[in-house]
Amino acid sequence: MRYAKNNITKTLILMSVCISLVLLISCKKENPEYPAPTIRFVTGNGLVMQDTTLLLNETLRIGLSAHTNSNQPLTHFHTTLIKDSILTNIDTALYATSFNYDKEITKGIALTETRIFYVRDRDGRKSNEISLTIRLDSLSVYGSIQYLPEVKMGAQNNDSSGSFCSLPGGKVSTTAEAFADQASVNLLYYYDLIEADKNTLASPGANLDASVFPGSSGLINWTVKNTTRFAYQGNITPAQFDLCRNDSLIQATSFEFETGKRKAKTLSNGQVYAFVTDTGIKGLFKITEVLGDENGTIKIFIKMKN
Amino acid sequence: MRKTIILLLNVFWAFFAYAQEQDTVSGLRVKLEEVVVTATRTKRLLKDIPAQVQVIGREEIESFPVSNIDDLLKSSANINVNRSWGIFSKNSSVTMHGLPGSARILVLVDGVPKNKIAGGSLNWHNINPDNIERIEIIKGPASALYGNNAMGGVINIITKKPIKKLEGSVQAFSGTYKTLGSSLNLSGNETKNGKGFYWNLNGFYRKGDGYYLDPPDFLDPTDVKTFLKEYGGGAMLGYRFGQSDNLELFCDYYNEKRGAGLRIHLDDGSYESTITRQIRSKYTRKIGGGELSALIYFTDEQFYGQKESINELQEYRLLDSYSYKTDKGFWTTWSQELFKQNRLTTGAEAKFGSVDGQDIYRTSTDMIGFRSKMDIFGFFIQDEIGLVGNRLKLIAGLRNDLVSFHDGYQNITDPTKATGFSKGFSETFNNNRWNAFSPKLSLQYSISSRSQVYLSAGTGYIPPDLKDLSQTGKIRKGFRLANPELKPERLTNYEIGFSQLIAGGIKINGAAYYSDGHDFQYMIGTSDSIDTGGGTLKPVLKPENIARIAVLGGEITGSWYISSKLSWNMSYSYNNSRITEFGKSQINPDKDLAGKYLLEVSPHQFYSGITYRNKSFSANMNCNYVDKQWFDDENTILIDDYFVVNMRLSETIKKHYRIYLDIQNILNTEFIDRKGQLSPGRFMTIGFHYIL
Predict the structure, then answer these.
(1) Residue B221 lies in a domain
(2) For chain B, does the N or the C end have fewer beta carbons within 10 angstroms?
(3) Given an 8 Å threshold on Cβ–Cβ distance, is A207 in contact with B165?
(4) Which helix (H) or strand (E) holds B339?
């Protein structure tokens, strides 16, 4: 009996040392080597997949298809846009085993526009890169513009002027009117007390606190929320805005939708902003008057590319 | 009203039980004669220590309702344990002596620091309560002996040593939220005539489905239950060369995975997992009139965090965080009685910490890498002198640490708006060195064998952790920038205290203290903010040594050993912890928090617990009140106070079988943490032990 107990004890000691050693030196299992995801241009149906030349404002469509080659989904779609020598990176989050992308591109003012695309999967494996370069046809001419002089909007508590504006027509609506025609609304004006951003132009798709436009017609209850994005143009003066007779200035200040801000904040008289709607309307506006707070008003002049 | 009823019930139970029990009072004697090693690094009687010291012994551990080892600390005065998600919390914030932040206390397991030099919260889960012999808690700064982190106090967790040839237990338990677990603890002692091997083998496993962190009305499809899955094990092999000459080798392993209550696409949603390994060896030997202790250790921690989220604009974000931290070191202590009633203790310590980590944003191109190292070399000396027939005891201690920060590096690759950097860059941080000089002087006078008073002046320091020095990345409040120019925080504490034994088995001890802290770190908002994509801007923050703080506090603990079977403990603590001066920040000169209260400090805390224990049955009922605390540095929001009642009933059958029932938070008190998330409410566990 005593002999057996001693043996048990020794076995346990041996076991403990062995287990400890195994735990301490155990290596993490290596993941199998999976191939990287792949991405390619889609052909057919008028989709372009090779470098080309376009006139200013001429459009083309591209299609992309990407898929994972591992047990992990795609999580990241990256676009590098090089307009002449200016580089912009655009990142889009995904969570899918495959990904299809379709985009209409309108040729801008840059002499060459190169777009480089790739995807990555959950484990960071990066796909091949594919690219497309579009050159500006030397025969290009600037296009015409549409001008909306003095669009006046009221802040959220203003009873006499509506806070919502539809483009390209420039119709200003109250909250109830806008709720009834949500798909047409591209801009809204409010006075921000929560983030202290004060006079702000945004769009229904921006992240507004539900208390700004409360009630049954409030933004929280909207089912269609268009998004407009903005980029402040500190180098453009109101006089330059006024002199704009074609879309040259709009082309020069235009930006990729994904890179713009969802809100134009702390607005003041004399500022000029470029904007792009999610439906592709591009333009500029200048501010001529900002008055008051939640009951206040704003006056803007808008020029848009036809 | 409910609080009053519980308190009255507690008192009533004590008196009722007192009337029933007329046994001799032995528990108190045992307590007073308890030997404590942590306070002076030498064996001293509890009553001879000029500080507030609490020992939680094995019997108390067994009779206390405990899911994690830090639950036991709630019974101690002046310790604030904030484990807001119960067992599902990855970390528990344990603060002491009116100071905020877990890092400002030093936690040791058999003398090995649990605090990581790299920073981060202490992980209490990887300590198996079944394997703990006792916990020694020393309150107040102790950097004169222990160096870094010992600012608010020291908690030393001492593991069991086998006595019998073969002993141990197997446990299985089940609890609320489909919690299941088991543990094993086997030990043996093969020593003969003071020589031979002794060993221990232990392991545990626990899993649970968890609960929703948000109230039902606020749940959305991305909310899921928190969950936990953890297991660990350890082995110890010791050899005794003689009565006071032994060598021990320990190996520990721990693996955990804990959900964060949010899932968008991934099966496990957001979660954190940690693997911790440790190997340590300790040697103790008596040589002549002296005693030598030496310890060497190596700990590493692999951390992985998967964080997925979706913002107000329904944009998906996925972040993977990896880090590898190491802590290795050794210390040696020599204690020698120079002449009668004069003991000199001296020693040296070296600690080496490192961190190497990476945050990879899977839904954009951003990558943030960081790594850095810190070395600490300390030397300490302490003299304990007994005067006036040993009624007056003087303890003078001094320690000097040389702290070196080096090899700091960060690398930002392909940044986007997710991290807010305008372009990628690499940066090698300047090496930095500090010297920390930590004296302490204590004087105790024994008025009688029942009554002692003491005065002490001590110092504490904490070097900046590697995380704050070198890690840039997202935090809950915003986005933190590394600050390699940080320097240590320092604190001086003046304390007066007493210990009084009253007839009838009542012991009261208490202290009042004033602490003055310099160079305390605060996060300062730069004028920048990051657009995280949701239209919500998050502030960019940077830590700075900017605040001077003061703590005016006191605590009182009462223990009534009503009989050998029944005891009642209560404690109350008060802390007024404020920022007294706030320096001019280089990055935001307008910020001024002077006069504001410190976070994670509850001004009033109260505990009362009663324990009944006979040969086969034990019962403990206790209650905790934690006063309101400030939610934010600016003191604009208060977190509600709360009151919880816990109990354990345990019955041992035929010496080998024990069943127990734990009910934590009996009243199902609902309280929220600093993230605004719910506590788990009432948590019941029923368990079964087989004891060899």
Answers:
(1) yes
(2) N
(3) no
(4) strand B316-339
Contact between B277 and A207 using a beta-carbon 8 Å cutoff: no
Structure tokens at B552: 């005016």
Would residue B593 count as lying in a domain? yes
Residues 6+ apart with CB under 8 A from A96: A73, A74
Query: B531 or B360: whose pLDDT is higher?
Result: B360
Torsion over CA: B457, B463, B465, B471 (sign): positive
Tell whether A143 lies on the interface with B, counting CB pairs under 8 A: no
Of B317, B360, B535, Cβ closest to residue A124: B360
CB B411 within 8 A of CB B426: yes
Would the CB atoms of A76 and B233 count as touching at under 8 Å? no
Q: State which amino acid sits at residue B229.
A: K
Mean pLDDT score of chain B: 89
- Which member of B199, B265, B318 has the closest CB to residue A16? B199
Average pLDDT, stretch B179-197? 92
The count of structural domains within chain B is 1
3-state SS assignment for residue B463: coil
Sheet holding A297-305: strands in order across?
A145-154, A297-305, A282-291, A272-277, A228-232
Is residue B667 assigned to a domain? no
Contact B318 A93 (CB under 8 A): yes
DSSP secondary structure code for residue A11 in this structure: H
| Residue A227 pLDDT exceeds 80 | yes
The closest alpha carbon to B525, from B552, B549, B544, belongs to B544
Domain CATH for B166: 2.40.170.20
**ipTM for the predicted complex:** 0.75
Q: Are strands A86-96 and A74-83 parallel, antiparallel or unpaired?
A: antiparallel
Please say whether the dihedral angle defined by the alpha carbons of residues B526, B527, B531 and B535, taken in this order, is positive or negative: positive
Q: Is residue B509 part of a domain?
A: yes
Three-state SS for A101?
Answer: strand
In which domain, by residue range, is B234 found?
A: 2-645
Domain A38-136 CATH superfamily = Immunoglobulins (2.60.40.10)
Convert the pLDDT of each residue in B252-306 to its tens digit.
999 999 999 999 999 999 999 999 999 999 999 998 889 999 999 999 999 999 9
Q: What is the pLDDT of residue B9?
A: 55
- CB contacts of B414 in chain A (<8 Å) are 89
Q: Which of B169-173, B586-590, B596-600 has the lowest mean pLDDT?
A: B586-590
Say yes or no for a CB contact (<8 Å) between A89 and B365: yes
